[in-house]
Design goal:
InterPro entries: DUF4232. The protein is an alpha+beta fold. The protein contains 4 helices and 13 strands. The chain has 2 domains: 2-85; 116-242, Immunoglobulin-like. The chain has helices at residues 2-54, 69-74, 81-85, 96-112; strands at 119-123, 127-129, 132-141, 147-149, 154-158, 164-165, 170-171, 179-181, 186-194, 209-213, 221-224, 236-237, 241-242.
């Protein structure tokens, strides 16, 4: 009887020990399980806030870049590939170079332009035909260096007291190209109106002066108009052409 009792007692102790071990394992699983699933969620929180602030989810759960930036940039949520190309390795915009070159070219063109103070101006003889009247307005380079003219001048007719006659000339014909004037050389434009009686539109008063802004210039020039009068409501000017007429 005593032997049996001891055997049974030992069996109970073994069984009790097994139950304790199982319980310990179960407790360990309960403690480690929630942590294992919650850590990625807590690590994902900065990614979510980063998305909300900048629209770029290019971070891993550990906060390191995942390489998703270029993809989000392609979607317009970050620096684009084109904007990246606009900056040099030193961080300076490389796109400024063409603009600077264009500005320099524009400055050079402006310095090469014929100005009012280096030219003389005269109105040539009229050319009448088929109801139209054309007057050559001639620019001559009186300076000591070559210069260029291009485009349309601004032309108005005035009286000697400075009052305007009618409206400024409108542009007619093509814009043409640049005309290079060596010292002493001339270029011209044509002033065009209609002969009296061709149209029922009344003629303007006679003028005494032609008031001109050379192409690209803010300084005016004047010359006598020889009584030029606009009729038929038609008064236009062509772009600069090489040579002096009349």
């Amino acid at each position: 009887m005593s032997l049996t009792f001891k055997t049974l007692g030992r069996g109970r102790r073994v069984a009790a020990g097994s139950l304790i071990a199982v319980a310990a394992l179960g407790l360990t699983a309960c403690q480690s399980g929630p942590d294992a699933t919650s850590r990625p969620s807590s690590n994902a929180a900065p990614v979510t806030s980063h998305d909300q602030q900048s629209g770029d989810g290019s971070q891993s759960a550990g906060g390191k870049p995942t390489g998703a930036g270029p993809q989000s940039s392609a979607n317009g949520r970050g620096p684009s590939a084109s904007s990246a190309k606009e900056t040099s390795p030193g961080g300076k915009p490389t796109g400024k170079a063409p603009s600077a070159a264009q500005s320099q070219a524009s400055a050079m063109a402006a310095s090469d332009r014929c100005t009012a103070d280096q030219m003389s101006l005269r109105l040539g003889a009229s050319d009448i035909g088929a109801g139209n009247i054309r007057y050559p307005l001639v620019f001559t380079n009186k300076g000591k260096k070559a210069c260029s003219l291009r485009g349309y001048p601004g032309v108005s007719l005035i009286k000697r007291d400075g009052s305007a006659v009618g409206k400024p000339a409108t542009r007619g014909g093509g814009s043409g190209g640049a005309v290079r004037l060596q010292p002493g050389q001339s270029a011209h434009v044509l002033l065009h109106t209609l002969n009296e009686g061709v149209s029922d539109t009344p003629c303007w008063d006679r003028s005494q002066l032609v008031f001109v802004y050379p192409p690209g210039s803010k300084e005016p020039m004047t010359t006598g108009s020889a009584g030029l009068r606009v009729c038929g409501g038609r008064f236009d000017v062509t772009a600069v052409e090489a040579g002096g007429l009349g």
